[in-house]
Fold these 2 entries.
Entry 1:
Amino acid sequence: MTLDFNRSLKFVLEHETVYAKGHYGDMDFAVTENEDGDPGGLTKFGIDQRSHPDVDIEELTVDEASLIYKREYWDAAHCYELPWPVSQVHFDGAVNCGIGQQTKFLQRAVGVYDDGVWGPNTKRATMDYINERGPKAVAIDVCDQREQFYRRLVQKKPGFGRFLQGWLNRINDLRKECDIA
């Protein structure tokens, strides 16, 4: 599962990190951002100040960010219990949409009550669905749920429309990464 986490983290960091001009892909040149309309505030490596008030975002290293991702997303969302590519899809969604919302996507995909809580019923239904249809089919269904969520969100809150293409690009990149495009 460590390989799954590292692979999944690499994808997340590629989509969450902003670099100094001319240094794309070089983590030594990651910079902070503070995007208008993003409620997280100051952000680096996708780790935001609002969710991490005790973290010095300006001085955050990629290793420190990786530990936060492992503890607060991979482990907390139970990604380690899922086979790849479901683990990667679940992790990326937990990071991008929040664990509760991502768990709802998974629950809807596997046909259980969508309360956003990982429990024995969700785990059992997920594993049964994976065994029946295969992990790629589940990953596809979850990505579809997430895409529908983004589109509904923009309908409800048109101000988020400026983020839609980026969200859809990320979903499409995720599908390619997981070989489910």
Note: Residues 1-73 form one domain.
Entry 2:
Amino acid sequence: MEQQQVEQWLAQNAKKLPAERVNEIKDLLLKADDNKASAAQSISLKDGTTMMLIAWIAGAYGVDRFMLGQTGLGIAKLLTLGGCGIWAIIDIFSASKRAKEFNYNKLREVLA
């Protein structure tokens, strides 16, 4: 992937990725071949704000965990109704960070 394409992609998606890992992502994108680069561009990244709203609205049912591929935790959260509400409240504040880490791991998986 060319430098200009990488800069453009990062400008569009930086808010959906962990800020401390942007340089690492930039290096991975620059080293990626055309197939991996096009796959990285087609990835649908989760928005942290949207995940926070989902955690607020349906967090007691584990919907936020299911959306991030954490099926086991989603089931546990569903069965306990968000840990009697405590787990659900904590997840509201951590949903954005978890979404960014999910996006980073997904991107790294495609580029590796």
Note: The two ends are 14 Å apart (CA to CA).
